[in-house]
Specification:
The complex is a heterodimer of chains A (about 290) and B (about 375).
Chain A: H1 2-33, H2 40-57, H3 62-85, H4 93-115, E1 131-133, E2 136-138, H5 140-162, H6 164-174, H7 176-181, H8 186-212, H9 218-233, H10 238-259, H11 264-278
Antiparallel strand pairs in A: 1-2
Chain B: H1 4-25, E1 30-36, H2 43-62, E2 71-77, H3 82-94, E3 100-103, H4 107-120, E4 124-126, E5 141-143, H5 148-161, E6 166-172, H6 175-187, E7 194-201, H7 209-216, E8 222-226, H8 230-241, E9 248-250, H9 257-263, E10 271-275, H10 289-304, H11 309-328, H12 333-341, E11 346-347, E12 352-353, E13 368-374, E14 377-380
Parallel strand pairs in B: 1-2, 1-3, 3-4, 4-5, 6-7, 6-8, 8-9
Antiparallel strand pairs in B: 10-13, 11-12, 13-14
Helix pairs in contact in B: 2-11, 3-4, 5-6, 8-9, 11-12
The chains are: A mainly alpha (about 290), B alpha/beta (about 375).
């Protein structure tokens, strides 16, 4: 039984790291504009799909196609901000969220036209030989995902707390007018936030696809799980996003292993609802207060 | 417009006259109706089906038609929507007055359209998978594809040969996986096989090691995975990752090269039942299906790219209909229906069809070949 529990925990952490990577992207744009970007899952898909298209389709070597795929995705993120989000400057947060939903459907459609309906895989970065920890096993790619998630969350944390640029983006979210008055180029900050988000999405896509595969509609489920992780941990808190992701992964794998695999998603969502019921701003979110 | 009016009336009269003349010259065309999911989520079914129907209707017409009568294919695209299918079936019967229907890509659309077709007394050859289409037998409805139950039976036969009596079942939560799970559980006792573990996973899940860890702790002697899409490939990889040495069986849902490509080395040794079309060129020359399969495969691939078993169902349906019309000596609906039911020894892409009043599918387990993946390719298990 202990062997089994160990495997469930390892599985939970590896799946959770995937969710955490996606959740991180949500946190950035939320930090900058209070908007939940529902096209975040599509960034993940575009990163993975363009890496596959460049390496398998055009025969480019991996070391070249992976950075190029990240660039492509960042480009898509910038274009999205410039041509879909920016023109609706005066719009409310809800309207902007609806625009991102529309954008996600549009991006899925484009991916469908470009790459078809097939499922694709990327080769793992360092082989497929399982690593044994007691009776439990882990794939080398799982370590890449966990390591990647770790590096990126630290990077994001450092960016928002220790750089002028990061603080400027945070300032836009706190009070857009005030940020503008002290000389912050709000439009530019938004552009950077979307670019950064797309960057994180693409990195997530490239890291997880050797394990999870991808297809034009893979972003839907990843986006949903990443979003759940982000609100579980507390929207806008990069550390919370990672904690939320890991927690969601652990809940899923433990309930699949110990209770029932048929109900694991239901159990995950019930716990999410309970958390939101008792702590509406998430486990690690700042409790927001409106000043009158 | 005013000036043009008398002219266009004249033209219309002339065209009508010509059409009437044309009708008296050539015999009435045979009208075959079809409603298929050519677009939408099930387009992987409907698209090759329509291409196949068009390709062979053109071929038959170029060769002079059936007894001198040309075939006219009347087709509607359901987009995979069962409600649309009912509407199109009605239109085919009432407005287009087709002689018979070959179509219904998805089980949902076939089952929805069946009552309408049955009421009107039009022979209907369905291209969908569900066993419910022919069990219980409905007078006017036939179907071409083998059923999930047959796939499960084929797997159990092979398991028994290998002395397996306890299995772990892991199935996808989609329609295909659920139906496969139900058939597996229903059929297992008949083969003296005990299902000791019954796990499931979501269609978009990315890791099944938790479920498989549970399976590892049971005394199962083999694992059976019923699923579709990326799930089975992930299950296959996870089984190898956990170092589980049990034989792994997949369903016909993964019978495509894509599965081998996704699962990679982990797929070595996996067994699955599949239609013979997949291994047409590997069949022994003595196999009566081989020439039919190769002819269809080559013709389809020359025109449209890689062949799929789904298009093959349309081929089988069309030619069973054509032969029944020939035997009936016309398109009298009741006679054609009787002749379809009397189909014996028809060699199609799905197998050798022997229909009867109690069997409107007419395939036995020989329609499935048991395959094993070796060296990244299919091999036929004897």
């Amino acid at each position: 039984m202990t062997d089994q529990i160990l495997q469930f925990l390892l599985t939970g952490v590896t799946v959770g790291a995937t969710y955490a990577l996606v959740a991180l992207g949500f946190a950035i744009i939320y930090n900058a504009s209070d908007v939940v970007n529902f096209a975040q899952g599509e960034f993940v898909m575009i990163g993975a799909m363009s890496a596959i298209a460049l390496s398998a389709g055009h025969g480019l070597p991996m070391w070249l196609s992976l950075p190029l795929a990240v660039l492509v995705t960042v480009g898509v993120g910038l274009l999205l901000q410039r041509f879909a989000i920016a023109p609706a400057r005066g719009a409310s947060v809800v309207t902007t969220i609806i625009i991102t939903i529309g954008a996600s459907i549009f991006l899925r459609g484009v991916a469908l036209l470009l790459w078809g309906k097939d499922i694709f895989a990327l080769p793992p970065f360092s082989g497929e030989r399982p690593i044994h920890i007691g009776e439990a096993t882990l794939l080398p790619q799982n370590l890449w995902v966990m390591g990647g998630a770790g590096v990126m969350v630290l990077g994001v944390h450092w960016f928002f707390n220790h750089t002028i640029l990061g603080k400027a983006i945070l300032a836009c979210s706190c009070n857009r007018t005030a940020a503008h008055l002290v000389g912050i180029n709000v439009g530019m900050m938004m552009l950077i936030a979307y670019g950064l988000s797309a960057f994180l999405g693409a990195m997530a896509g490239i890291l997880v696809t050797p394990i999870t595969f991808t297809s034009y509609d893979a972003g839907v489920m990843l986006g949903l799980k990443g979003f759940s992780a982000a609100i579980l941990g507390g929207m806008g808190n990069p550390m919370g996003a990672v904690a939320g992701g890991l927690l969601l992964g652990l809940i899923e794998s433990l309930s699949a292993g110990l209770i029932s695999s048929g109900y694991k998603d239901a159990i995950g969502f019930i716990i999410l609802l309970l958390v939101l019921f008792f702590r509406p701003s998430g486990l690690f979110g700042r409790t927001s207060s409106e000043r009158v | 417009m005013k000036i043009a009016n008398p002219l266009s009336t004249l033209a219309a009269v002339a065209v009508l006259g010509l059409a009437a003349a044309g009708q008296t010259l050539a015999a009435d065309p045979i009208k075959i109706g079809s409603f298929l999911a050519v677009t939408g989520g099930a387009s992987f079914l409907g698209d090759p089906e329509l291409k196949t129907l068009q390709m062979y209707v053109d071929e038959i017409n170029a060769g002079g038609g059936i007894d001198g009568r040309q075939i006219e294919l009347v087709h509607y695209d359901t987009g995979g929507n069962a409600k649309e299918a009912v509407g199109f079936a009605k239109r085919l019967i009432k407005k287009d007055q087709v002689d018979l229907i070959v179509g219904g890509s998805t089980s949902g659309s076939t089952l929805a359209a069946m009552p309408e077709v049955g009421k009107s007394g039009t022979p209907f050859i369905s291209l969908a998978g569900s066993v419910k289409i022919i069990d219980p037998v409905q007078k006017w409805v036939f179907k071409m594809p083998h059923t999930d139950r047959m796939a499960a039976a084929k797997i159990f036969e092979d398991m028994k040969k290998r002395g397996v009596s306890k299995i772990a079942l892991i199935s996808g939560s989609g329609g295909f996986g659920k139906s496969g799970r139900a058939q597996t559980l229903a059929l297992a006792p008949e083969y003296g096989i005990e299902v000791v573990s019954d796990e499931s996973y979501g269609a978009k899940d990315t890791d099944m090691t938790a479920q498989l860890t549970k399976v590892r702790a049971t005394d199962a002697q083999a694992i059976l995975n019923f699923g579709f899409g990326s799930g089975p490939a992930i299950v296959t990889k996870n089984v190898r990752q956990l170092g589980i040495e049990l034989p792994l069986y997949q369903s016909h849902g993964v019978a495509s090269k894509k599965y081998i490509e996704l699962a990679g080395d982990a797929a070595e040794g996996v067994r699955l039942p599949a239609a013979a079309l997949l291994v047409a060129d590997k069949l022994p020359d003595s196999d009566p299906q081989k020439p039919v399969l190769l002819a269809y495969k080559n013709k389809f691939e020359a025109a449209h790219g890689p062949v799929s078993t789904f298009g093959g169902h349309a081929y089988d349906g069309l030619f069973i209909a054509v032969e029944a019309i020939k035997r009936a000596g016309g398109t009298d609906k009741a006679k054609v229906r009787d002749e379809i039911e009397k189909t014996q020894g028809f060699i199609g892409t799905g197998g050798i069809y022997n229909m009867s009043a109690t069997d409107h599918l007419g395939l036995d387990l020989s329609a499935f070949k048991m395959l094993e993946i070796k060296g990244g390719d299919w091999t036929i298990v004897e």
